[in-house]
Give the backbone structure.
Amino acid sequence: MHPALSVIFFTTASGAGYGILIILAMMASWQVVPMDRTLGMTGLGLAFILVTAGLLSSTFHLGHPERAWRALTQWRSSWLSREGVLSVLTYGPWLALAYYWIVLGEMTGLGGVFAGMSVALAIATVFCTAMIYRSLTTVHQWANRWTVPVYLMLAVASGAVWVGALLSATVGVDKSYLAFAVVCLLVAWRVKRMYWRFIDTTRHPSTPKSATGLAGDSVRLLEGPHTEENYLLQEMGYKVARKHAQKLRRFVHVFGFMAPILLLIAAYLLSGPAIIGACLAAAVSMSAGVVVERWLFFAEARHVVTLYYGAEAA
């Protein structure tokens, strides 16, 4: 599939934003983090900017962005609509959480309820984002059991790493939290590796033979239906060379997971201002890795319609 930059930015930015919200709201509800106003403003504010910018950028991929609001009316049948509805609903308890944290400086009573609601709605929104692609049975690289865990774990891991950077720059970060962030990265790394293993070793059940209904043991394209690329080939038949895909995967392994883990371990062993530098570098490194990972998520996907244009498998 053709990797649209607006969708890549949307899924990575909003994923990181919701991840930050999930981690901060959980810590606040469990009262394991100081109700520091600077931390609340920077953390919840950064999450708000990332999510809002991501949601706005998603409309750039539409032919008529001014009609985007109509998608909210199809929540009974559309995962895209459900995502939109939940993303709007999340702002309510999110702003209430910010009020309790930043203005009141305490997380008691309803504050904990709003924190829990923020966590639940943020997770549900990321789940719906993943289900937009998981539900497309015509794309084997998306319609599999690993798509949802990849989206959820990358969001949580991104949030954990960025919250670590924010903690280190404000109230200080505990070694136990650094260990937690490393565990999140390891789990997300494992899930992504399993996803890549799945798409490398399996194919869509449809074949050129089943797609065309022709008889014979082997069916192949004799001649193309037209001399130039059409919309289907441009959007659904995008090809990335295997050697380039492997290089980009290595980039994701190194900068998306390995480097952040090593930097967080370094922060665990360091002291003073060096901790801030290590945590911030880990967050920036992972963000770069997730952007490339999301580009590959789209570029490596193959729609079954390509079987009509000479592809041997999808």
Observations:
- The first helix runs from residue 5 to 29.
